[in-house]
């Protein structure tokens, strides 16, 4: 088995120490950081993401795989910056104003990073202005909004409304999700997509990025 395939396989099993060791070996062998990232770390995380989407693995498995991914990524980050390696795109992520829940949002962030996206995580209790300001500043193509309380869902509509006010509708896309959120609600507030779980959210972001690039 090649080093990169072994990195991917160990990441799938959540073996963070082994992933760190193998990543160091790959770097020492002269492999490009982008190759290690794409064919090792991201390849392994893609399998975990697909298995999670199919309910073949569960949240603890994803968290272990994410820890292993970060163990390798810590070594690659300075090399990737030196190579000026492009990521697949930027996503601003956060839980909306008035809501303190972040487990689902964090999982989406992990899955997006595992799929090769740069995630700007604003945390919890985020105002509409903070979402839109961050998207403008970072040049993000997608804003991901999470809510677990029905009382905070309306803030999502404030974000889509603010994007329209600033002339950014269509330029910055919105993805919404959370336990009480539905596809019908997404249509009502003019959101571009609804993610019913973390795996589906990655698929929706990929589709939004492709649309924005056209």
Quick recap of the structure?
The protein is built from 9 helices and 5 strands, in the order ααααβαβαβαβαβα. By secondary structure, it is an alpha/beta fold.
Q: What is the architecture of the largest domain at the second tier of CATH?
A: 3-Layer(aba) Sandwich
How many helices in DSSP terms? Answer: 9
Low-confidence runs (pLDDT<50, min 5 residues)?
A: none
**Fraction of residues in H or I helices:** 55-70%
The end-to-end distance, rounded to whole angstroms, is 39 Å
Biggest sheet: strand arrangement: 2-1-3-4-5
Largest sheet: 5 strands, parallel
Keywords:
214 residues, alpha/beta, Methyltransferase, Methionine Synthase (B12-binding Domains), Chain A, domain 1, Rossmann fold, 2 domains, 5-stranded parallel sheet, 9 helices
3D structure, described in words:
The protein is an alpha/beta fold. It has helices at 3-12, 16-28, 33-53, 59-83, 103-114, 128-138, 154-165, 183-189, 198-213; strands at residues 90-95, 118-121, 142-146, 173-177, 193-194. It has 2 domains: 3-83, Methionine synthase domain (Methyltransferase, Methionine Synthase (B12-binding Domains), Chain A, domain 1), CATH 1.10.1240.10; 90-213, 3-Layer(aba) Sandwich (Rossmann fold). Helices cover 59% and strands 10% of the residues. It has a 5-stranded parallel sheet, sandwiched between helices. Strand 4 (173-177), helix 8 and strand 5 (193-194) form a beta-alpha-beta unit. The radius of gyration is 18 Å and the shape is globular. The mean pLDDT is 94.
């Amino acid at each position: 088995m090649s080093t990169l395939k072994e990195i991917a396989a160990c990441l799938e099993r959540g073996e963070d120490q082994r992933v760190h060791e193998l990543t160091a070996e790959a770097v020492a062998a002269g492999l490009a950081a982008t190759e290690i990232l794409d064919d090792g770390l991201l390849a392994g995380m893609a399998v975990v993401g697909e298995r999670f989407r199919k309910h073949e693995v569960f949240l603890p498995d994803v968290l272990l795989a994410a820890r292993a991914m970060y163990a390798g990524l810590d070594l690659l980050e300075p090399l990737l910056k030196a190579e000026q390696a492009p990521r697949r795109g930027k996503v601003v992520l956060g839980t909306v104003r008035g809501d303190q829940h972040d487990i689902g949002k964090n999982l989406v962030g992990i899955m997006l990073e595992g799929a090769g996206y740069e995630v700007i995580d604003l945390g919890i209790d985020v105002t509409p202005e903070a979402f839109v300001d961050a998207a403008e500043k970072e040049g993000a193509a997608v804003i991901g909004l999470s809510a677990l309380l029905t009382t905070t869902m309306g803030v999502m509509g404030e974000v889509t409304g603010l994007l329209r006010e600033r002339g950014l509708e269509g330029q910055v896309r919105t993805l919404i999700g959370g336990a009480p959120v539905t596809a019908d609600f997404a249509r009502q507030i003019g959101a571009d997509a609804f993610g019913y779980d973390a795996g589906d959210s990655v698929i929706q972001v990929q589709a939004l990025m492709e649309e924005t690039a056209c």
